[in-house]
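Supplementary Methods, section 5.1.

A reviewer requested that the exact input to the structure prediction be made available. We therefore reproduce it here, unchanged from the version used in the analyses.
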Amino acid sequence: MNICPLCHSTELVTYHQDKKRRYEQCQICQLVSVPPEFYLSARAEKAEYDKHENSPHDLGYQRFLSRTLEPLLARFEPSAQGLDFGCGEGMALSLMAKARGYQVENYDLYYANQPATLTRQYDFISLTEVIEHVSDAAGLLEQLDKLLKPKGILAVMTKRVQSSSAFSTWHYKNDPTHINFYSEATFTWLAAKYDWRLEIVDKDVVFFHKPS
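The structure derived from this sequence is encoded token-by-token as follows.
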């Protein structure tokens, strides 16, 4: 029996099935997830990431990241300390922040695996196109909550589930490294669990505000 990666409920129902994978939806937190038998090995997962060409000098990629970074930095003074969790090989977001006078540390399991980075607390944490890749959703959110200072902001960029009919033709689900899919309902559940305030910033960007 599978359990929900986020709330650990066993109340899962089939949400969609295609030629490659099955997708289940939790009836408690509404997360749509891929069962573990469809997970890639760590080696295969990294091989997929190595194909990405997310250069910090790519203006298109900078514009993409700026939809998270700009509203995030607007809420903080340059003295604030940030963390880009899952920064990727190019570490583009931290370089963009540095150009604006902000200090952002980098952490990535494959490209910037510095455990000491995860022993401090931060005023803000960004996850741009990261949360959908992480199998232990519950463990990730617990870790991020501990890393975030009171009154801090967790900025999450990921495309959101809209409906089962839209999901059937959704290109986002076809990436083999995408295994957990979040909706506004799931983010609302998360905010209630951690006593965060949810702010919908963009079609694929949400901010969680941690209370003081």
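The first helix runs from residue 42 to 50. These observations are discussed further in the main text.
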